[in-house]
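It is worth pausing here to work through a concrete case rather than discussing structure prediction in the abstract. The textbook approach is simple: state the sequence, then state the predicted structure, then interpret. We follow exactly that order.
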Amino acid sequence: MDICFRRAGMPLAAAGALALLAGWVAVAPARAQQPAAPAAGQAPAAGQAPAKNYKDRGEYDLYSKVTQTTDPKARLELLNTWQDKYPQSDYAPERLQYFVATLAQLAQNDPAQRQALLNKCQELLKTDPKNANALYLISFWGPAVGGNNPPPELQSQVESAAHAFISGADEAFAPANAPKGISAADFEKAKKIRLGVAHNALAWAATAKKDNATAESEYKASLTANPDQGPVSAQYAKLLYDEKKIPEALFQYARAAQFDGPGALPAATRTQLLDFFNKAYKGYKGNSEGADQLLAQAKTAALPPNGFTIASASDAAKKEAAAMQSRIDSDPAFKLWYTIKSNLTGDQADSFFTSSVKDAEIPGGAEGVKTFSGTVISIDPPDKPTKVVLGVEDPAKADATLLFSQPLPASALDTIKVGAKLDFSGVADSFNKDPYMLTFKDPTIPGVQTTAPPKKGRAARHR
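Step two, the predicted structure:
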């Protein structure tokens, strides 16, 4: 399917998580420690750690402007100036966290800032290996920077960050760590959204290594953590489809096409996916039966239930063939009927009918069979019928017609009625190849008195 999804791009739900926790970068301590005025060279009291100090008034002014500037582009310029003028600073850790927070804002709309963000996150992890924000941002933006053919170094960084974030998520998102103004429910939701991103990053890395088994597992884990990820469902669907795991792939295509809440794909893309799903489903199953039910199920569930499957057209054909063979083996009358039908629908149908069936009494005791059996589908006309249509192979599909020279008596209609099973034998009068129909003239119906005497024919010859 020619629809491209940027791996580990920004699903709406993930974008919401960024907005929700945009300020959660632990810069508050920097402000709390900010002196009212520069105090370079001040010595610490005995037994105390050295106090943080600005180099001079210029650094103090830069720091103050950084903390007061809301525009991320302007703040980034101030941070770069601060770093250039004061590469060695007591406030380097706080400055680094401001860099990460600022670049994270800019990265959403400016791809040129994403590699710089990754670099700063790696720098932050050297001093704070468990920094959940840095680990998350690498997991989020690394795949976007790396694309489908990432350099090994970036791939390794993303894997390490994603694994570390997952292993430390419970600690990082403990209720006590919730930022002021964020409810416990929203904090837990943000955790699940970010866990989904981390697992999706691992799926991206596994795909780059062509480790499809791991990629499948991680996509599943991602959707388990955060079900509301239309792009991830679509990526997972393509992987499964390429692996020929069609039932599971169809479920994910249905999910990506039907899910329309926060985190969904754009409407136009969902329409494309729905068209693809409908064609692929019909191609696999042989018909559209059950497609609507699957679409409804996938709309409310990101993953299929255990044991989920869809019978393919090939599976259905094998099952049907097995059932047909079992019926042939166990029912001599049907075996004879099916043999006649097979010949009358084959390439030599006309010659077979003329030489072996026309004007012949059938079944006529051939292979010990005295009557055929079918289900009455219609009687015409209803009051004084001269035509009875039966379904022999399929009770709902007509394939035998009984024609009578005179209307059937009322007493016969106690037995001959729609839905009833009827045994019959007689002389074959004509046939139609497609749709298949074999017609008998004045047949015999055991136990039923008809007005006209049964027509006698020659003995049939069957192949």
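Step three, interpretation. The first strand starts at residue 360 and ends at 362. Residues 184-208 form the longest helix (25 residues).
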